[in-house]
């Protein structure tokens, strides 16, 4: 029988509590995500347990500028408009059982995707509704968005977001390479390389996957090192009459960049400011610390991390039913800032932990199909 809807979190009460404890609370430490692996996702959205979609950062020499983004042709990736749940992460756990599974249980309090954590981190400053599905199985909770994080945008905002994604895809044709060799050409596959991270968030050990940008290393084997570094590339579309070189990201844009990059330990962002003609005269870099400093009066990275930790703890505290078929649905309503949830105990259309995955944990020696080409 389904549970009735209940309130689990109120933003106003949380903020009141934070203000009352402001002088007593300990300093919130920055997140320290550690790479524990990775996988590829092809343009057809198939999972691959390899690094075939890994890209390397190769910034063009000065004499190659200006870059003409309009000369690049890319197909708009529509997968961002559809929920993908946690299928790819489940395949990763299957392929890395020695590191991920012990005594028939996954070694993590939370398994999720970076977009879930980013959404929670930005809740305080970006007044948008969101919905998350959750299941608890063998004392690990699994969380995924019901819809892509930009699904609540207006038609005009969606058009701007789509244009930005296309321009960034074109920019990557210039900045990313399939090999560390500067002379190589980037395949226009539309695939992605995902890094898998483990991070301590408050009291919880969280494992999640995140789409990666370009790798700084000169050789693929460098991925095995803890010091592996990635960089992101972003496009700033015109929002002022100032010269392109003087544009700075708007506070909300900066928050989006910071929340995305800090979860995958990216320290550096390469920024292009295309003219209306599509030409990019230069590419500048920005450190995450600079984004924080420039927006000290607009948003607080510490408050974002604190809220992320608190909501995760609240979600975990109410998810008491340990059943792979049962699904908790959490709905955040930005106005008035409350998080509600309900529980469907029986298997239903939103159940997202597959039978083969449950069987894998229940019977480790069972013959589980190794479906590497699976959506």
TrEMBL record:
GO terms for cellular component: cytosol; nucleus. The keyword Ubl conjugation does not apply. Its EC number is 3.6.1.-. Coiled coil: none annotated. Its cofactor is a divalent metal cation. GO terms for biological process: NAD-cap decapping; nuclear-transcribed mRNA catabolic process. Keywords: Hydrolase, Metal-binding, Nuclease, Nucleotide-binding, Nucleus, RNA-binding. It holds the Pfam family RAI1. Residues 32-358 form the RAI1-like domain. One of its GO terms (molecular function) is nucleotide binding. The keyword Nucleotide-binding applies. It is found in: Nucleus. InterPro entries: RAI1, RAI1-like_fam. It is an enzyme of class 3 (hydrolase). Decapping enzyme for NAD-capped RNAs: specifically hydrolyzes the nicotinamide adenine dinucleotide (NAD) cap from a subset of RNAs by removing the entire NAD moiety from the 5'-end of an NAD-capped RNA. Belongs to the DXO/Dom3Z family. This is Decapping nuclease.
């Amino acid at each position: 029988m389904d549970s009735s809807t209940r309130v689990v979190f109120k933003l106003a009460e949380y903020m009141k509590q934070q203000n009352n404890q402001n002088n007593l609370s300990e300093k919130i430490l920055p997140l320290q995500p550690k790479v524990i692996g990775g996988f590829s996702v092809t343009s057809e959205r198939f999972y691959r347990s390899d690094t075939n979609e890994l890209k390397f950062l190769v910034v063009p020499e000065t004499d190659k500028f200006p870059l003409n983004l309009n000369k690049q042709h890319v197909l708009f990736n529509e997968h961002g408009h559809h929920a993908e749940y946690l299928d790819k992460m489940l395949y990763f756990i299957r392929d890395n059982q020695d590191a991920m599974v012990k005594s028939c249980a996954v070694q993590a309090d939370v398994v999720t995707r970076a977009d879930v954590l980013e959404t929670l981190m930005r809740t305080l400053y970006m007044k948008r509704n969101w919905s998350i599905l959750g299941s608890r199985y063998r004392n690990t909770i699994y969380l995924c968005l019901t819809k892509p994080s930009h699904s609540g945008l207006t038609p005009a905002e969606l058009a701007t977001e789509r244009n930005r994604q296309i321009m960034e895809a074109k920019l990557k044709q210039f900045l990313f390479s399939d090999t560390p060799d500067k002379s190589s050409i980037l395949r226009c596959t539309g695939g992605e390389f995902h890094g898998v991270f483990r991070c301590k968030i408050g009291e919880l050990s969280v494992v999640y996957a995140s789409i990666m940008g370009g790798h700084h290393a000169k050789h693929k084997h460098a991925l095995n090192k803890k010091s592996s570094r990635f960089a992101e590339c972003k496009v700033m579309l015109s929002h002022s009459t100032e010269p392109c070189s003087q544009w700075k990201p708007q506070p909300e844009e900066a928050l989006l960049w910071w929340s995305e990059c800090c979860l995958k330990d990216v320290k550096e962002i390469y920024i292009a400011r295309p003219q209306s003609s599509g030409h990019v005269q230069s590419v500048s870099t920005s450190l995450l610390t600079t984004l924080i400093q420039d927006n000290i009066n607009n948003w607080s990275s510490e408050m974002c991390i604190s809220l992320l930790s608190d909501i995760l703890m609240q979600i975990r505290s109410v998810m008491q039913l340990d059943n792979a078929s049962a699904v908790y649905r959490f709905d955040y309503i930005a106005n008035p800032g409350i998080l509600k949830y309900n529980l469907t105990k029986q298997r239903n259309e939103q159940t997202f932990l597959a039978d083969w995955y449950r069987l894998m944990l229940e019977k480790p020696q069972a013959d589980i199909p190794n479906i590497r080409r699976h959506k």
